[in-house]
Amino acid sequence: MTEKELVGLSADLEALTRAPGTRKGPPCTVGGVLASVDEDTAAMLGRILDTPTVTSTAIADVLSQHGQQVTSYTVARHRRRGDSNGCRCPR
């Protein structure tokens, strides 16, 4: 690449960081649960979500037992938030 092409590429990549994010589809179900529970419960769920030894299936089962319709796939996707194949919730 030429110097001019590199500068253009750099400018275009920088512009991506300033562009507003687009939201497509429904919001994350796990994010909705985190927003709907009290602060202590949200903090505990956040810690559990970040604990790799607790399976997504186990988390989904407990949430479902308490009336939250969440699948293990949704929990796994939320755990990957920030990655290209994760949900759009902030990391």
Describe the structure in your own words.
The radius of gyration is 18 Å and the shape is elongated. The model has no long low-confidence stretch (mean pLDDT 88). The protein has helices spanning 3-18, 29-36, 39-49, 56-65, 72-79. The longest helix has 16 residues, at 3-18. With 91 residues, it is an all-alpha fold. Helix 2 (29-36) runs antiparallel to helix 3 and helix 4 packs across helix 5 (72-79). The protein has five helices and no strands.
In terms of topology, how is this protein built?
Elements: H1 3-18, H2 29-36, H3 39-49, H4 56-65, H5 72-79
Helix pairs in contact: 2-3, 4-5
Low-confidence regions:
none
Task: Note the overall shape.
Answer: elongated
Mean pLDDT: 88
**Spatial extent as radius of gyration:** 18 Å
The total of helices stands at 5
Beta-strand percent range: under 5%
Oligomer state equals single chain
Q: Supply the helix-strand structural class.
A: mainly alpha
Count of extended strands = 0
Helix amount, in percent? Answer: 55-70%
H-E string = HHHHH
Span from first to last CA? 34 Å
Largest sheet: none
